Here is the input.
Amino acid sequence: MKKLVVKDDVCIGCGACVAIDALHFDLNENGLSSVISNENVETGEVITAINTCPVNAIKLVDENNEDSQKDGCACDNCEHCAHHENHEA
Here is the structure.
């Protein structure tokens, strides 16, 4: 199962993800993006929000693969990673 992750230490709070997909994202009390729903996360809006993030703070990860959230690329297979062409397998 996939889930959305926003890296708080990377997010700049631009709000692009919220403007694109308010069903999955909102700004928290610190003005940073946060995930408000992990239902139906493989929609076009979610993918657009991920790819639009100017600092690549949003990732779609395998819920059971904690290691994927710890390395430099937080996706489980890079199919949605904005750095796909730069990712070293």
